[in-house]
Amino acid sequence: MFQISRRADYAVRLMLELGLEPDESLSVRQLSVRTNVPKPFLHKITVDLVRAGLVQTQSGPNGGLKLNRPVDQINMQQILEAVEGPICLNTCLLRPNECERDLFCPAHTFWGALQKMVVQQLQKATLAYLLEEARNLTIYPRRRADIPYLNAPVAGLSHKKEVFYEKG
Question: Which residue range is the domain that position 120 belongs to?
Fold first, then answer.
């Protein structure tokens, strides 16, 4: 299953929170409370984000974490790759001849096209864009019915019940 890791999700939460106050330094405690990310996990993620040049740390009584770049110069690809490494949907896309079937495998072409689309979307989604979306959602929250859940509950049924449909 393709799924964003908890580590990646937490990194995005952290970056969004820092982006809300880009000129302020926020303590690990503040960030942990605001993002609901456990402090030990936050420390590990911070190391990766600092190493990638996305976040800076400041020591002292008013110290903490702060964005290292403007929000319009940080995108989702940079955040995800800071904590997860390069985005690669299938090992056959790592380098030529990684897979002996890459010259004739139709799935290789599909994986390559999908990889390209995913990376393009991640590059387009800047922190500035996501922060604007956050501001809009505080004014106009989305309806649960508008969210494309994988396992959306069927109206009138408990989410614990299985639904079987007859063919025909």
Answer: 6-142
Q: Is residue 95 part of a domain?
A: yes
Total domains in the chain come to 1
Q: 81-100, pLDDT tens digit by residue?
A: 999 999 988 888 888 888 88
Whole-model pTM: value is 0.83
Q: Is residue 35 within 8 Å of 13, Cβ to Cβ?
A: yes
Residue 155 counted as domain residue: no
**Do 122 and 80 form a contact (C-beta atoms < 8 A)?**
yes
Residue 48 has pLDDT above 80, yes or no: yes
Chain position carrying tokens 């649960």:
144
* pLDDT value for 164: 41
Helix axes 39-51 and 76-84, enclosed angle (nearest 10): 110
Sequence-ordered list of residues with C-beta below 8 angstroms from that of 52, at least 6 positions apart, any chain: 78, 81, 82
